[in-house]
What does this fold into?
Amino acid sequence: MQTTRLSERAGRILAALAREYIETGLPVGSATLSRSVGGLSSASVRNVLAQLEEQGYVRQPHTSAGRIPTDLGYRFYVDMLMTMRRMGRPNASVEAQLRQHTGTNALMADMLAQVSHVLSRNSRQVAFALGPENQAAAFHRIDFVPLANTAVLVVMVAKGGQVTHKVVDIKEQLDADVLRQAANYLNSEFAGLCLSEVRAAVVERLCQEQSLYDQLLSRALRLAQSTFEGLPDENSLFIEGTSLLLDQAAEGSAGPPIAMLQGLLKLVEEKHRLVRLLTEYLNTEGLTVIIGAEHQSPDLKDFALVTSTYFDGRRMGRVGVIGPTRMPYWRSISIVDSVARAVSRVLRDSGWDDTDAAPRC
It folds into this structure.
């Protein structure tokens, strides 16, 4: 969605209209705008509004009503805010809360869950924290724990504290000592590679050595292959705050009608769809705002999304908020940007960006 170049007067009027509508939720009339921009009569404002409506920036919900922004009008307003934006410092309070979830034994999942909570609470919107791509994570270690009969619990840890648990049936009963030796072999061979490289290396070795004379090596590789089969490729996603939009809709306040929320709630329930959407078209680094019709999914056509990237030293993840197109963009942009940079600082300072163990992807 691209905006055309507007005159200075039309731009001021459109920005004032967007601010007023976001604040009140009511169509904005020419008299209100005349007072807001100053130096223009109501008649002059009406002429400009007619031009803006013809260009697709505003619309009139009822014949006798004032105007409200269209998605194109919001886009102009957001682009104006982005050009005016100054990069502030990460919020100290947010950093302090995130640091409570880091440390020697901290998991990235714990911190990302906290990020979505903090972001939702501060923005009053649906908030999400999207983890870096799983298959790009650096393999740290694997452990095998014998369960009943021939079942084995696999615990795989990636750099940055990402942990995957999986139960596999190895079709034979092995004691803890044998499993520990197999894990030690895999850890010594593959530590530091990214998970996708470990998966490929295991398959290659099994293909090359169909008749392995070393029973331990054979078992270790077969255990690793079972572990990586079905390992999720998608990023982990943490979401919080859907109840806030439901409350707003029930109160008839800033949120969209409950009927409009159905698509968003369905996306939230089917996290894999939302993960794919976010990773497919939010592939640029830094702050991004997507509004209404700009979304690839029709389920989000009534919503705006503000997102920014964080960096763990090797890979990018994303944090952001989803709310009605009539969201307080300036506040949302500021909060998301601040939280994203706070996450990057916490990850960097916690040592999760250990470059000596960076995957060779």
In short: The chain is about 50% helix and 15% strand.
